[in-house]
Amino acid sequence: MPAPLIRTQALEKIYRLGESEVHALAGVSIDIAEGEFVAVMGPSGSGKSTFMNLIGCLDRPTHGQYALGGQDVSTLDSDALAGMRNHSIGFVFQNFNLLARTPAIENVELPLVYAGVPAPERRVRATEMLARVGLEGRVHHLPSQLSGGQQQRVAIARALVTRPLLILADEPTGALDSHTSLELMALFQELNRGGMTVVLVTHEPDVARFARRVLRFLDGRVVADEANVALDARALLAEGAVA
Amino acid sequence: MNLVALLRIALRALAVNKLRSALTMLGIIIGVSAVIVMVAVGAGAQARVEEQIRALGSNLLLILSGARTASGVRLGLGSNFSLNEGDAFAITREIPGATAAPAVRGGAQLVWGNTNWSTAIYGTTPEYLPVRQWALAEGRGFEPAEMSGAAKVCIIGQTVVNQLFGATDPIGQTIRIRRVPFTVIGVLETKGQSMMGTDQDDLVLMPLDTARNRVLGATTLAKQRAVGVIWVKVDDGLDTNAVAQEVRALLRQRHRLQPGADDDFSLRNLAEIMAAQEASSRILTILLAAVASVSLLVGGIGIMNIMLVSVTERTREIGLRMAVGARTRDILGQFLVEAVTLSLIGGLVGTLLGVGGAFAVAMIAGWRVLVSAEAVLLAVAFALLTGVFFGFYPARKAARLHPVEALRFE
Does B326 sit within 8 Å of A82, measured CB to CB? Predict the structure, then answer.
């Protein structure tokens, strides 16, 4: 069996708030294999966001190890972490986080700019990705000219453009209506079927139903790690049902 | 990230808040144009002083007769006629490389036809013109016979020509000076204003004896053959100060002054006075530039202020850029380029305005201005440096943001 894509060992994160110490993560040991679709659930304050920040190389653990794609990243410096985020992780955020007044294509190109990819190649790859998420006709639209669902698709294209090891989505449907959410989940499922590892952080059970594995966090620990019979978002859309 | 990409990001970010960017640039524009105008005005003044030094001759000594003390009341310089024309001849004769011209001064009313004009009268010798490096525009100088015979002839300055004669050729005309008829034999070339602002062309020259005996009417002076001033020209290539010392020694000896006694005359090295004036005009230039630089500094602070606001406003953007792989130096570069773009555009616009402003000052105020390439380059370079200096802190602040906190920033 190959090494898991993500392996955390006794991962801890302690925040200092004045005198008191807060154990946002109190020892999390989890393996996530390539090609999984994992939903990370838990109430606010359960540590799921901290977990996502660590998995996403946005932050460093206080204790414990984290290996991404077989490489220990828990001790990397901030520029090396930036490099990891750039080529190994695709982020999708709740509020899309697109650059305002910047055309969709340039938003998608952004990670490639930091990767040092030459402009002509950037353009080709970004165009390709926008087509993949179904936005062929919206390449030069500004975020303000796109609907919420379309903006999130641009963000997903941006996450995919560097061909990352995993997609890390933080409440991706939080700002979308239920029909658009369903379409988005269909897109995630489609990407996952194509082999992409997807880690979805959410507090909505409805969204978690589309994942094949659910991790439940409480008080900085994983309290449940269960397999899930995923709903097929595409099929639901075809039936005209609303999730 | 390369510079072109950074520049594009910067221009797009600046275009978002056009008014704000323009107002921020205004600080730099005012600073740079102020520096350029001030330096141009200062350099113009300096050039004028240098020109005056050249016009006067850089190697001129002026000897004034000393002050007289009467019953404890000390009168001003020239009140005691301690100098006489013998002193002048002795200087010319005994000090190699020195030519002296004695002169008595006075004022008188000139009358020609139905016009009249009050002017300065100089009784002097033919040496006066070469010593003052003054040429005749027309006519001739004094003949030896006219000198010894106290002839009633005179040479007049351009201002006198304009005031009395207008368009008429003054040569050969007869003017009355204190009712004494004089024949005009020469006209001096225009010399312009002196450093002190007096009109040097407003004068009449006549033989020494003529002035003393017929116009100024000072019989005691005539007996003593006294003069008020002696101009001394030092030949080129000689040390003016050394010659000045020789002149002083000679005069002290001729006036039989004991060692330790004060000079009964005043010797001035005009080159030194001019040099002092040049130095003061240079200091003025530096001062003006320094004051103008303060406005550039204020402009720089404006840039820093706006960049800090911009960093705060765009915290989420910074967080996102970090999330997709921007390194510390990418963010630092982005905001630094933005600050420098502001200052550089401001600097270039300021240069145009400054050069235009300098010429406007020249046109309107009639001042001499000198726009030098060095001053322009310096101002633009200074603006650039201001952008880097004042942009660095906000840029570093942006680059040091923690990605998690930046992304969560509301």
Answer: yes
